[in-house]
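# nightly structure sweep
# worker-07 picked up a monomer target from the shared queue
# config: single-sequence mode, recycle default, output format = C-alpha coordinates
# input follows
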Amino acid sequence: MPDLWAQQRSDNLHAALPLAARVRPEAFSDVYGQDAVDMLRRIAERGHIGAVLLWGPPGTGKTTLARVLANHTNRQLVEANAATVGVAAIKDVLARSKASLEGGGPPIALFLDEIHRFNKAQQDVLLGDVERGVIDLIGATTENPWASCTKALVSRSVLIPLQPLDTEAIATIVRRAHAMDPMLKGTALLDDAVDVFAGRCGGDARRALNAVELAAGWAQAQADANAIDGEIALRAMGARTVAWDRDGDQHYAHASALIKSIRSSNVDAALHWLAVMLEGGEDPMFICRRLAISASEDVGLASPQAMQLAASALQIVRHIGMPEAEYPLAELTIYLATAPKSDSVTRAIHGARADVRDNGPADVPVALLPSRAPGGSAQGHGEGYVHAHIDPDAAWAMCDLGEGRRYFEPGTNGLEPTIVDRGHRPS
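# output follows
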Protein backbone atom coordinates (compact mmCIF):
# COMPACT_ATOMS: atom_id res chain seq x y z
CA MET A 1 0.00 0.00 0.00
CA PRO A 2 1.39 3.40 -0.89
CA ASP A 3 2.36 5.66 1.97
CA LEU A 4 -0.33 8.31 1.53
CA TRP A 5 0.90 10.34 4.49
CA ALA A 6 4.41 10.49 3.03
CA GLN A 7 2.94 11.61 -0.29
CA GLN A 8 0.90 14.29 1.46
CA ARG A 9 3.99 15.57 3.25
CA SER A 10 5.87 15.67 -0.06
CA ASP A 11 3.01 17.60 -1.70
CA ASN A 12 2.94 20.08 1.20
CA LEU A 13 6.67 20.68 0.94
CA HIS A 14 6.36 21.21 -2.81
CA ALA A 15 3.51 23.67 -2.32
CA ALA A 16 5.63 25.66 0.12
CA LEU A 17 8.30 26.20 -2.52
CA PRO A 18 8.26 29.54 -4.34
CA LEU A 19 7.05 29.48 -7.92
CA ALA A 20 10.58 29.74 -9.34
CA ALA A 21 11.51 26.50 -7.54
CA ARG A 22 8.26 24.69 -8.38
CA VAL A 23 8.68 25.21 -12.12
CA ARG A 24 12.45 24.83 -12.30
CA PRO A 25 13.40 23.10 -15.59
CA GLU A 26 14.65 19.52 -15.45
CA ALA A 27 15.92 19.32 -19.03
CA PHE A 28 18.09 21.47 -21.24
CA SER A 29 15.18 21.87 -23.68
CA ASP A 30 13.24 23.82 -21.04
CA VAL A 31 16.06 26.32 -20.36
CA TYR A 32 15.55 29.51 -22.35
CA GLY A 33 17.70 32.47 -23.31
CA GLN A 34 21.19 31.11 -22.58
CA ASP A 35 23.63 30.20 -25.36
CA ALA A 36 25.61 28.32 -22.70
CA VAL A 37 23.05 25.49 -22.89
CA ASP A 38 24.73 24.12 -26.02
CA MET A 39 28.11 23.92 -24.29
CA LEU A 40 26.62 22.24 -21.22
CA ARG A 41 24.72 19.79 -23.39
CA ARG A 42 27.99 18.78 -25.08
CA ILE A 43 29.59 18.32 -21.65
CA ALA A 44 26.66 16.13 -20.60
CA GLU A 45 26.91 14.04 -23.77
CA ARG A 46 30.49 13.09 -23.02
CA GLY A 47 29.33 11.77 -19.64
CA HIS A 48 32.05 13.55 -17.71
CA ILE A 49 31.61 16.92 -16.00
CA GLY A 50 35.07 17.62 -14.59
CA ALA A 51 35.06 21.20 -13.34
CA VAL A 52 32.64 23.85 -14.58
CA LEU A 53 32.31 27.44 -13.41
CA LEU A 54 28.99 29.15 -14.16
CA TRP A 55 29.44 32.91 -14.06
CA GLY A 56 26.55 35.33 -14.34
CA PRO A 57 24.18 37.71 -12.54
CA PRO A 58 21.38 36.50 -10.26
CA GLY A 59 18.34 34.85 -11.81
CA THR A 60 20.08 33.65 -14.98
CA GLY A 61 19.81 29.92 -14.25
CA LYS A 62 23.07 28.90 -12.57
CA THR A 63 21.44 26.53 -10.05
CA THR A 64 19.02 25.21 -12.65
CA LEU A 65 21.80 24.44 -15.12
CA ALA A 66 23.84 22.71 -12.42
CA ARG A 67 20.92 20.43 -11.58
CA VAL A 68 20.13 19.69 -15.21
CA LEU A 69 23.78 18.91 -15.94
CA ALA A 70 23.99 16.52 -12.98
CA ASN A 71 20.72 14.89 -13.99
CA HIS A 72 21.85 14.32 -17.59
CA THR A 73 25.12 12.74 -16.41
CA ASN A 74 23.46 10.55 -13.77
CA ARG A 75 25.39 12.18 -10.96
CA GLN A 76 24.33 12.52 -7.37
CA LEU A 77 24.31 16.27 -6.81
CA VAL A 78 25.41 17.66 -3.47
CA GLU A 79 24.54 21.35 -3.15
CA ALA A 80 26.32 23.72 -0.79
CA ASN A 81 26.80 27.45 -0.39
CA ALA A 82 30.44 28.42 -0.18
CA ALA A 83 29.56 31.18 2.27
CA THR A 84 28.48 28.66 4.92
CA VAL A 85 30.09 25.30 4.17
CA GLY A 86 33.38 24.44 5.85
CA VAL A 87 36.43 22.50 4.77
CA ALA A 88 35.41 19.49 6.90
CA ALA A 89 32.10 19.15 5.02
CA ILE A 90 33.89 19.42 1.68
CA LYS A 91 36.37 16.72 2.68
CA ASP A 92 33.45 14.48 3.66
CA VAL A 93 31.91 14.87 0.18
CA LEU A 94 35.29 14.15 -1.40
CA ALA A 95 35.61 10.96 0.64
CA ARG A 96 32.10 9.83 -0.34
CA SER A 97 32.81 10.52 -4.00
CA LYS A 98 36.04 8.52 -3.83
CA ALA A 99 34.18 5.62 -2.23
CA SER A 100 31.61 5.73 -5.03
CA LEU A 101 34.36 5.49 -7.63
CA GLU A 102 36.06 2.64 -5.81
CA GLY A 103 32.75 0.80 -5.78
CA GLY A 104 32.38 1.16 -9.54
CA GLY A 105 29.98 4.10 -9.49
CA PRO A 106 30.28 7.64 -10.83
CA PRO A 107 31.78 10.51 -8.86
CA ILE A 108 29.56 12.89 -6.92
CA ALA A 109 28.81 16.25 -8.51
CA LEU A 110 29.44 19.00 -5.97
CA PHE A 111 27.58 22.23 -6.66
CA LEU A 112 29.15 25.16 -4.82
CA ASP A 113 27.07 28.30 -5.03
CA GLU A 114 28.91 31.59 -4.48
CA ILE A 115 32.22 29.81 -4.96
CA HIS A 116 33.95 33.20 -5.00
CA ARG A 117 33.41 33.27 -1.22
CA PHE A 118 35.86 30.39 -0.79
CA ASN A 119 39.29 31.64 0.23
CA LYS A 120 42.44 30.31 -1.42
CA ALA A 121 42.96 27.57 1.16
CA GLN A 122 39.40 26.30 0.73
CA GLN A 123 39.67 26.32 -3.06
CA ASP A 124 42.99 24.49 -2.88
CA VAL A 125 41.31 21.64 -0.95
CA LEU A 126 39.36 20.82 -4.13
CA LEU A 127 42.18 21.07 -6.67
CA GLY A 128 43.81 17.67 -6.35
CA ASP A 129 40.61 15.63 -6.40
CA VAL A 130 39.16 17.73 -9.24
CA GLU A 131 42.29 17.15 -11.31
CA ARG A 132 42.26 13.40 -10.59
CA GLY A 133 38.56 13.11 -11.42
CA VAL A 134 37.64 12.05 -7.90
CA ILE A 135 34.83 14.61 -7.88
CA ASP A 136 32.90 16.65 -10.41
CA LEU A 137 32.75 20.32 -9.46
CA ILE A 138 30.12 22.82 -10.58
CA GLY A 139 30.80 26.27 -9.19
CA ALA A 140 28.47 29.26 -9.48
CA THR A 141 29.49 32.87 -9.03
CA THR A 142 28.16 36.35 -9.71
CA GLU A 143 31.72 37.73 -9.76
CA ASN A 144 34.41 37.51 -12.37
CA PRO A 145 36.18 34.21 -11.59
CA TRP A 146 39.42 35.51 -13.09
CA ALA A 147 39.49 37.98 -10.20
CA SER A 148 37.60 36.15 -7.44
CA CYS A 149 38.84 32.56 -7.84
CA THR A 150 42.38 31.23 -7.76
CA LYS A 151 44.21 30.92 -11.06
CA ALA A 152 44.76 27.23 -10.38
CA LEU A 153 41.02 26.57 -10.06
CA VAL A 154 40.13 28.64 -13.12
CA SER A 155 42.75 26.87 -15.23
CA ARG A 156 41.22 23.48 -14.35
CA SER A 157 37.66 24.57 -15.12
CA VAL A 158 35.45 25.15 -18.12
CA LEU A 159 34.35 28.77 -17.67
CA ILE A 160 30.79 29.37 -18.88
CA PRO A 161 29.51 32.96 -18.74
CA LEU A 162 25.77 33.55 -18.46
CA GLN A 163 24.03 36.74 -19.56
CA PRO A 164 20.94 38.54 -18.22
CA LEU A 165 17.93 37.05 -19.96
CA ASP A 166 16.31 39.11 -22.69
CA THR A 167 12.63 40.04 -22.59
CA GLU A 168 11.63 37.29 -25.04
CA ALA A 169 13.21 34.59 -22.86
CA ILE A 170 11.61 36.01 -19.70
CA ALA A 171 8.20 36.13 -21.40
CA THR A 172 8.58 32.47 -22.42
CA ILE A 173 9.60 31.49 -18.88
CA VAL A 174 6.64 33.37 -17.37
CA ARG A 175 4.13 31.78 -19.76
CA ARG A 176 5.61 28.32 -19.16
CA ALA A 177 5.34 28.77 -15.39
CA HIS A 178 1.73 29.93 -15.67
CA ALA A 179 0.81 26.97 -17.84
CA MET A 180 2.46 24.23 -15.76
CA ASP A 181 1.98 25.32 -12.14
CA PRO A 182 -1.26 23.93 -10.64
CA MET A 183 -1.43 26.73 -8.07
CA LEU A 184 -1.90 29.25 -10.89
CA LYS A 185 -4.66 27.34 -12.64
CA GLY A 186 -7.80 29.37 -13.11
CA THR A 187 -5.90 32.65 -13.04
CA ALA A 188 -5.66 34.25 -16.45
CA LEU A 189 -2.37 35.86 -17.49
CA LEU A 190 -2.87 38.78 -19.87
CA ASP A 191 -0.30 39.82 -22.47
CA ASP A 192 0.21 43.29 -21.00
CA ALA A 193 1.16 41.67 -17.68
CA VAL A 194 3.71 39.44 -19.39
CA ASP A 195 5.22 42.54 -20.98
CA VAL A 196 5.55 44.15 -17.55
CA PHE A 197 7.18 41.10 -15.97
CA ALA A 198 9.60 40.68 -18.87
CA GLY A 199 10.44 44.35 -19.21
CA ARG A 200 10.97 45.31 -15.59
CA CYS A 201 12.84 42.36 -14.06
CA GLY A 202 16.28 43.36 -15.32
CA GLY A 203 16.91 39.98 -16.96
CA ASP A 204 16.34 38.17 -13.63
CA ALA A 205 13.94 35.25 -14.16
CA ARG A 206 13.62 34.59 -10.43
CA ARG A 207 12.48 38.15 -9.78
CA ALA A 208 9.93 37.91 -12.59
CA LEU A 209 8.50 34.63 -11.27
CA ASN A 210 8.33 35.92 -7.70
CA ALA A 211 6.28 38.85 -9.01
CA VAL A 212 4.02 36.50 -10.99
CA GLU A 213 3.25 34.53 -7.83
CA LEU A 214 2.53 37.70 -5.87
CA ALA A 215 0.31 39.04 -8.66
CA ALA A 216 -1.57 35.75 -8.86
CA GLY A 217 -2.43 35.98 -5.17
CA TRP A 218 -3.81 39.47 -5.62
CA ALA A 219 -5.76 38.47 -8.74
CA GLN A 220 -7.28 35.42 -7.01
CA ALA A 221 -8.41 37.66 -4.15
CA GLN A 222 -10.42 39.90 -6.47
CA ALA A 223 -14.16 39.36 -6.31
CA ASP A 224 -14.99 40.62 -9.79
CA ALA A 225 -12.08 39.24 -11.80
CA ASN A 226 -9.42 36.58 -11.64
CA ALA A 227 -6.81 37.77 -14.09
CA ILE A 228 -3.28 39.11 -13.87
CA ASP A 229 -3.33 42.30 -15.92
CA GLY A 230 -0.74 44.99 -16.50
CA GLU A 231 -1.82 47.07 -13.51
CA ILE A 232 -1.51 44.18 -11.07
CA ALA A 233 1.82 43.21 -12.65
CA LEU A 234 3.18 46.71 -12.12
CA ARG A 235 2.20 46.63 -8.45
CA ALA A 236 3.80 43.21 -8.02
CA MET A 237 7.04 44.16 -9.77
CA GLY A 238 7.46 47.41 -7.89
CA ALA A 239 10.07 49.90 -9.00
CA ARG A 240 12.42 48.89 -11.75
CA THR A 241 15.79 48.08 -10.22
CA VAL A 242 19.34 48.04 -11.53
CA ALA A 243 21.46 45.07 -10.51
CA TRP A 244 24.67 46.43 -9.07
CA ASP A 245 27.82 45.33 -7.29
CA ARG A 246 30.20 48.05 -6.19
CA ASP A 247 33.11 45.62 -6.09
CA GLY A 248 32.28 43.58 -9.17
CA ASP A 249 32.13 43.79 -12.93
CA GLN A 250 29.15 46.19 -13.02
CA HIS A 251 31.26 48.73 -11.16
CA TYR A 252 34.06 48.74 -13.72
CA ALA A 253 32.07 48.00 -16.88
CA HIS A 254 29.77 51.00 -16.48
CA ALA A 255 32.58 53.31 -15.41
CA SER A 256 34.40 52.32 -18.60
CA ALA A 257 31.29 52.98 -20.69
CA LEU A 258 30.84 56.40 -19.06
CA ILE A 259 34.42 57.53 -19.69
CA LYS A 260 34.55 56.19 -23.25
CA SER A 261 31.28 57.94 -24.08
CA ILE A 262 32.72 61.21 -22.74
CA ARG A 263 35.88 60.66 -24.78
CA SER A 264 33.71 60.13 -27.86
CA SER A 265 31.79 63.38 -27.15
CA ASN A 266 28.48 61.45 -27.01
CA VAL A 267 26.76 63.43 -24.28
CA ASP A 268 23.53 61.40 -24.22
CA ALA A 269 25.38 58.10 -23.91
CA ALA A 270 27.51 59.57 -21.13
CA LEU A 271 24.41 60.73 -19.26
CA HIS A 272 22.81 57.32 -19.70
CA TRP A 273 25.73 55.48 -18.10
CA LEU A 274 25.92 58.08 -15.35
CA ALA A 275 22.22 57.50 -14.64
CA VAL A 276 22.70 53.71 -14.59
CA MET A 277 25.49 54.06 -12.04
CA LEU A 278 23.47 56.42 -9.85
CA GLU A 279 20.36 54.22 -10.01
CA GLY A 280 22.50 51.22 -9.13
CA GLY A 281 23.74 52.93 -5.98
CA GLU A 282 27.32 53.55 -7.09
CA ASP A 283 29.46 55.66 -4.77
CA PRO A 284 29.18 59.23 -6.15
CA MET A 285 32.76 59.95 -5.06
CA PHE A 286 33.99 57.08 -7.23
CA ILE A 287 32.13 58.56 -10.20
CA CYS A 288 33.55 61.99 -9.46
CA ARG A 289 37.11 60.67 -9.27
CA ARG A 290 36.70 58.97 -12.64
CA LEU A 291 35.37 62.20 -14.15
CA ALA A 292 38.30 64.15 -12.69
CA ILE A 293 40.71 61.75 -14.38
CA SER A 294 38.84 62.21 -17.66
CA ALA A 295 39.14 65.99 -17.30
CA SER A 296 42.91 65.76 -17.67
CA GLU A 297 43.24 62.53 -19.65
CA ASP A 298 40.64 63.20 -22.35
CA VAL A 299 39.97 66.96 -22.33
CA GLY A 300 43.30 68.19 -21.07
CA LEU A 301 44.67 71.49 -22.33
CA ALA A 302 42.02 71.81 -25.01
CA SER A 303 39.82 73.14 -22.18
CA PRO A 304 41.84 73.66 -18.99
CA GLN A 305 38.68 74.78 -17.17
CA ALA A 306 37.66 71.10 -17.09
CA MET A 307 40.14 70.47 -14.29
CA GLN A 308 38.75 73.38 -12.30
CA LEU A 309 35.19 72.09 -12.69
CA ALA A 310 36.29 68.58 -11.70
CA ALA A 311 38.01 69.89 -8.57
CA SER A 312 34.90 71.89 -7.67
CA ALA A 313 32.66 68.89 -8.27
CA LEU A 314 34.81 66.75 -5.98
CA GLN A 315 34.36 69.26 -3.17
CA ILE A 316 30.64 69.75 -3.76
CA VAL A 317 29.83 66.04 -4.01
CA ARG A 318 31.88 65.31 -0.89
CA HIS A 319 29.96 67.91 1.13
CA ILE A 320 26.38 67.51 -0.10
CA GLY A 321 26.15 63.78 -0.95
CA MET A 322 23.23 62.14 -2.73
CA PRO A 323 20.65 62.75 -4.02
CA GLU A 324 21.59 66.38 -4.75
CA ALA A 325 25.08 65.32 -5.88
CA GLU A 326 23.51 64.15 -9.13
CA TYR A 327 23.41 67.77 -10.34
CA PRO A 328 27.14 68.60 -10.18
CA LEU A 329 27.91 65.11 -11.51
CA ALA A 330 25.57 65.66 -14.46
CA GLU A 331 26.96 69.15 -15.09
CA LEU A 332 30.54 67.89 -15.10
CA THR A 333 29.61 64.95 -17.34
CA ILE A 334 27.90 67.23 -19.87
CA TYR A 335 30.81 69.68 -19.83
CA LEU A 336 33.42 66.96 -20.37
CA ALA A 337 31.41 65.25 -23.11
CA THR A 338 30.85 68.47 -25.05
CA ALA A 339 34.31 69.98 -24.46
CA PRO A 340 37.03 69.84 -27.13
CA LYS A 341 39.29 66.85 -26.60
CA SER A 342 43.05 66.49 -26.37
CA ASP A 343 45.26 63.68 -25.12
CA SER A 344 48.51 65.65 -25.40
CA VAL A 345 48.91 65.62 -21.61
CA THR A 346 48.45 61.83 -21.52
CA ARG A 347 50.89 61.25 -24.35
CA ALA A 348 53.44 63.65 -22.85
CA ILE A 349 53.62 62.05 -19.40
CA HIS A 350 53.48 58.51 -20.80
CA GLY A 351 56.32 59.34 -23.18
CA ALA A 352 58.42 60.94 -20.46
CA ARG A 353 57.99 58.04 -18.05
CA ALA A 354 58.70 55.46 -20.75
CA ASP A 355 61.90 57.32 -21.65
CA VAL A 356 63.02 57.35 -18.02
CA ARG A 357 62.25 53.65 -17.62
CA ASP A 358 64.06 52.69 -20.82
CA ASN A 359 66.98 55.08 -20.80
CA GLY A 360 67.29 56.25 -17.23
CA PRO A 361 67.10 59.84 -15.97
CA ALA A 362 69.24 62.63 -17.35
CA ASP A 363 71.89 64.15 -15.12
CA VAL A 364 70.75 67.40 -13.52
CA PRO A 365 72.78 70.23 -15.17
CA VAL A 366 75.11 72.06 -12.78
CA ALA A 367 73.35 75.34 -13.49
CA LEU A 368 70.06 73.87 -12.16
CA LEU A 369 71.49 72.51 -8.91
CA PRO A 370 70.58 74.46 -5.73
CA SER A 371 73.46 76.72 -4.77
CA ARG A 372 71.97 77.36 -1.33
CA ALA A 373 72.05 73.69 -0.31
CA PRO A 374 74.78 72.77 2.22
CA GLY A 375 78.08 72.75 0.34
CA GLY A 376 76.36 73.64 -2.91
CA SER A 377 78.16 76.91 -3.53
CA ALA A 378 81.56 75.32 -2.83
CA GLN A 379 80.83 72.67 -5.44
CA GLY A 380 79.86 75.23 -8.06
CA HIS A 381 76.14 74.46 -7.99
CA GLY A 382 74.11 77.04 -9.83
CA GLU A 383 77.04 78.37 -11.92
CA GLY A 384 75.83 79.49 -15.32
CA TYR A 385 72.21 79.78 -14.24
CA VAL A 386 70.26 82.20 -16.42
CA HIS A 387 67.06 83.79 -15.09
CA ALA A 388 64.24 83.28 -17.57
CA HIS A 389 62.83 86.74 -16.89
CA ILE A 390 66.09 88.25 -18.10
CA ASP A 391 66.98 86.03 -21.07
CA PRO A 392 64.21 83.58 -22.03
CA ASP A 393 66.14 82.01 -24.92
CA ALA A 394 69.24 81.29 -22.87
CA ALA A 395 67.16 79.98 -19.96
CA TRP A 396 65.34 77.58 -22.26
CA ALA A 397 68.60 76.30 -23.75
CA MET A 398 70.07 75.85 -20.26
CA CYS A 399 67.30 73.34 -19.41
CA ASP A 400 67.25 71.60 -22.80
CA LEU A 401 67.66 67.80 -22.61
CA GLY A 402 68.26 67.36 -26.33
CA GLU A 403 66.20 66.36 -29.36
CA GLY A 404 65.78 62.79 -28.12
CA ARG A 405 63.72 63.97 -25.19
CA ARG A 406 60.77 65.80 -26.68
CA TYR A 407 57.49 64.65 -25.11
CA PHE A 408 54.84 67.33 -25.40
CA GLU A 409 53.11 67.85 -28.74
CA PRO A 410 50.21 70.33 -28.49
CA GLY A 411 46.99 69.44 -30.27
CA THR A 412 44.81 71.63 -32.42
CA ASN A 413 41.49 71.56 -30.53
CA GLY A 414 39.96 74.18 -28.27
CA LEU A 415 42.41 76.43 -26.45
CA GLU A 416 45.39 74.18 -27.06
CA PRO A 417 46.56 75.90 -30.28
CA THR A 418 47.27 79.01 -28.21
CA ILE A 419 50.06 77.19 -26.36
CA VAL A 420 51.81 75.85 -29.45
CA ASP A 421 54.42 78.59 -29.23
CA ARG A 422 55.02 78.14 -25.51
CA GLY A 423 57.04 75.38 -23.90
CA HIS A 424 59.29 74.71 -26.89
CA ARG A 425 62.44 76.54 -28.03
CA PRO A 426 61.60 80.23 -28.50
CA SER A 427 61.94 81.52 -32.03
